[in-house]
Every structure is written in C-alpha cells, then in structure tokens.
Amino acid sequence: MPTQEVELDGVVRAMARMFDAYERVFAAGRIGRSVSRPRPVRRTGFDLQLRVVARDAVADDVVALTFAGRGGEQLPSWHPGAHLDVFLPSGRLRQYSLCGDPADRATYRVAVRRIADGSGSREIHDELAVGSVLRVRGPRNAFRLVDAPSYLFVAGGIGITPILPMVRMASARGVPWRLVYLGRSTATMPFLDELAACPGGDVVVHADDGDGFADVAAILGELHALPPVPDLYVCGPPALMDTARQLMRALDPRTPVFSERFSALPVVGGEPFTVELARSGRTVDVAADESALAAIRRVLPDVRYSCQQGFCRTCTCRVLDGEVDHRDRHALPDAERADSMLICVSRAAAGERLVLDL
Amino acid sequence: METYQDEAISITPRDVQFDWDDLSLHYIEGQPIATHITNVMHITLPEGERAMVQALSDALPLVNDDRLRDEMIGFIGQEEIHSTSHEDLHDHLDRQGLDTGPIVRKLEWLVDRAFNRPNLRGRARHAWLCERLALSAALEHYTAVMGQWVLDADALDGAVHPVMLDLIRWHGAEEVEHRNVAFDAYMYVDGGYFRRARTGVMASFLLLGIFAWATAHLYRNDPTRGEQRFWPFQLVDGIRKGLIPSGAHFFTEIPTYLRRDFHPSQMGPLDKALRYLAQSPAAQAAAAH
What we know:
The structure holds 2 protein chains of 2 kinds. Chain A is of the alpha/beta class. Chain A is built from 11 helices and 19 strands. The model of chain A has no long low-confidence stretch (mean pLDDT 90). Chain B has one domain. The N and C termini of chain B lie far apart (43 Å). β7 of chain A pairs parallel with β2 of chain B, so a sheet runs across the interface.
C-alpha cells in the first residue's frame, strides 16, 4: 500500500481530516443529507420523430429531404457544420449534415447522394417518400463554423452539404469567403444555384468532365499565394482533405484547419471471435466488422471507453487468457501489452478466444 | 421535463503528442515563479482529473440520456489524455532538480483519501457520489475560466516555450469545449442547490490552497532560488506582465457560480477555443494521420 510509504505533512493531514468531517456531516449524517435535497434537471428531445415534408432531386443521383416535427413543433437550433443521426427503416444508422437554413426552426434539410454499394443511400432514395416518419437523433456538431477574419471553404462532391450553410452565414455576416467546389460534372453537383445567390465571396467550380481532373494543389496554391491566410474548412474525400490541409499548412503552419471529426472508424480486416467476460460470466460474439467494445456494450452498456480509435486508453482491459492482436496507436505501454488490451480497436489473434476481466 | 433547445457539441478526445527535449527549467523566460505556478498544473491536474473521471464513470449507469452520456464519455477520454500529457512532464521537472516525487505522492494519497470512501453504503454512498459530482462541476468551472484565460492571454505568445504554450492552450481550449459536461451530469443526477453552492465555495479555497502549497514546494526545490529575486516581487511582476492570472478569479467567480440560474453555457462563445483546437500543432498533427 502506498499509504505507508508517503511522508505526509501537516497541510495534507489537515485537508484529509477536513474531508473526513465533511463526509460525516453531508454524506453519512442525517442532517447534512436533509439539507441537500436533490432537484435534478433532466431533458428530453435529443431523440426526435421527424416527418419527411419534401423530397427534391437537387442534382443527378442527389436527393434532398426536408424534415419537420410530427406536430410542427420548434426544432433544436444548430450552427453550420451540424449533422443528424438518422435511423433508417431497416434500422441502419447514418449521419447526414444539415444543409438548410439554421434560422428556420421548423424544418431540417439533408442531401444524400446515391452510392452504388451504399445500402443507406439506396434506402433513402428508394424507400422514403413525403410523409415517411423517421427516428432522428441530434443535431450534433463536430465541425462548427466559428468566427474568423476570412474563410476558405473546400468541398468535394456531396461534401458540399455542411459547407453550404457555412457559405450562407459568412455571406450574411459580410465576412470575406471563397469556396472551391470540386465534382465530377456540374450535373452531379448540388446547390450551384443556391451558392450563386450568396454575395460577398466567390465560388470556384471545378468539374472533372469540363475542366480536366482537378489539381487541387494548383487550384488552392494559385488562390492563396499571398497572406493573410484564411481559416480552412474542408469536407470531401480523404485525399482532398489531406491535400488541402497540407497546402494550407505549407502557406502558414498556424492556419486553423477544420474538418469533420469522427469517432469510431470502420473495422478493417477483422475476423469474428469470442470474448468471455470473466467477472460478469457472459460470453459475447464479436462480428468481423465490429469492435470488441461494440459487442461488449450490448451486454455491459456502462463499460468504460471514449475515443474508439485506440489512443486514449480509457477502455484498457486486463486479459486473463488468449492472445491479442494489438491494434492501438502504441498508446498501451510495452509493459502492459502482455496482459492488457484496448477493447475499442484490438482484437483476438487468429483463432484465439479472449477472456477479459470484465 | 425540459427539452433540448440547441445542438449538442461533439466532444471526443484528441490524440496529441508533445516533445519536451529542449524545455528549460524556467520555460517562461526569466520568470521562475510564473513557471512554477504553471508547473503546479502538471503536478496536480493528473490526480484531480482522474478523480473527476472516476466520479463521472460512476455516475454513467444513472444517466439515461444519450446526449449527456455521449458528452460524459467524450469528457472522460479528454481528461484521460490531459492527465497523461501533464504527467509526461514529471520526468522533465525531476531532471531539472525539482523533485516532484514527494508532492505527487502526497497528492495521490490525499485525492484517494478524499474521494474514495469504500466504507459508505446505500444512501450515504449515493450522497458521496453526488458530492464528488458537485465538486467536479465546481472544479470544472475553474478549469474553464482558466482555459479561457490562457486563450485570451496574448502576453504568453513569445514569452512561453512554444510547445508548453501549445500544451496549456490545447488543454485550456478543451476545458472550454467541455465546460458544461460535469455540471450537466451533476444536475442530472442530483441538481441540489445547497450541495452545488457549498462545493463551489470549497473548490475555490481548495484550488487556492493547493496552488500556494505546491508552488512553495517547487520554489524551495528550485536549484537557482538563491539567484532569484524575492518571490513576491516575481509574483507581482508575472501578474503585471499578464503571464499568470492574479488569482482574483478564485473570489470573483464565487458569486457567478452561486447564481441559482447559473449554467456554463453563459460563459461566452466557444469560438476562440474551437478555433485554437483547429490550429494547435499537437492536436492538428494527430488530425492529419
């Protein structure tokens, strides 16, 4: 026990005694408890039931859905960059950025591109009609537009959805802005008309079919060869985001760069395996495309975790038996790798069954 | 029951790395006392933040609100990263002869003794959880106020070692970003005013006491103490130059926090904090991979 080794001083002892007295009065004592009446504040309304009130084709293979509360009630406010968790009729969960007007508290709008192998987008396109009711959670913001002297927005394809309300807000506030909007062809790029109606900045549209394959480096470099360097907001394919980020960093390493922040990443190259939870006496099957954490949460919803990317170590768990395929970002110290794992990313080694101290 | 009227701010930890190889003993140039006041954070925050993490983790099973749960889970991860990032500096401080071991061990002992009460059962145990949550909410009010202070303190630019400045501003900005979480968790689980008020006052004096106590320890161990000016002169000089806060917050924030309708969201816009997080070298290096 560390208690014996610690050399305590008067201050520390006095503070410890203060906590002891505090506990006797306010936690263990009846009078202390009677003057500490609970008055909890609890809220609802993170889960919403929304009705589709409009469905518009806004570009080739892109449909915009407008939602309203079932009773026409006022919806929670949001800032540009916010998204909704949408539960599709099949139960699938998808996240879509809000692309409507934040000042409109009666409706939300999202836009979805049909992706050949995307089961979520197929459902949106083929199965939802005006009048459909969906369960939605949010709005939540992981990409919020914040005050800055000037903005550069870079959008690739359907990545325009969170950017459109940002452009509108910059335009309305009179803050200088510029948008670089890349796509395959203008017919597939939604909201070109709405963007053209935003004063105070300019839109550089680059369509691969008319202008040739986009050299993002050249486009951005040409636009911002001179200071001051604007704040960058970028949304689109990962390669576009990386290129834009690197370019702005090269111009000025302290340029604020905003991109949407995600928590859990998809599992790549996973095999199914079984986890035995020794303390709770349960056994959980982990599917190939889910994390051990996701499977364990089905039976232990309050298990500790946070980043879901293998670096914060909140979910560190003792392994009592079985060999681990460690997939963390070397966050776990070497000394602990033999008998611990981060359950948010690490898995069982091929053919192994894991026994965890949970 | 009230309904949410605004969006949730997504709170998730950031994977940061700091390199301390060329950090000097007095990394606020010519300001030993200001440096040691900053060092107190490296020494005290890891234990304090872990105690808060434990309180919020223990409260999680009581919270049946997905929005608040998400925020609490994000808070827990952010605080874990804060703890380890500050702890990584202990080796550096020890190499400079500051001998942090004894004070860190005392704090560990004190925090453990203060927060963990394994003998409590039933209603007393729940009451103690409420006390821990209330104290966490109050301490988080001060970390958010200090966080905004370091974001606003322009005098720090150029005066503080750049990596250290990034550490304290990244940390400060995340404190501002998640400022409502411990408060909302307390309000959800208990919400009593008297409990919030007394822990609010307690947090103020606790922080003031710990800062004075730990700064004194570091100053006594500073190998260059003999060559320095008498410490009150240094203190006044650091405050006058805007390199350290005056400490007046520990008193002026009490009436703010004690207002019956207080909520952390009243503390001003998040913009500066979120903008710093988008430019922090440590946070952005991680975002790029």
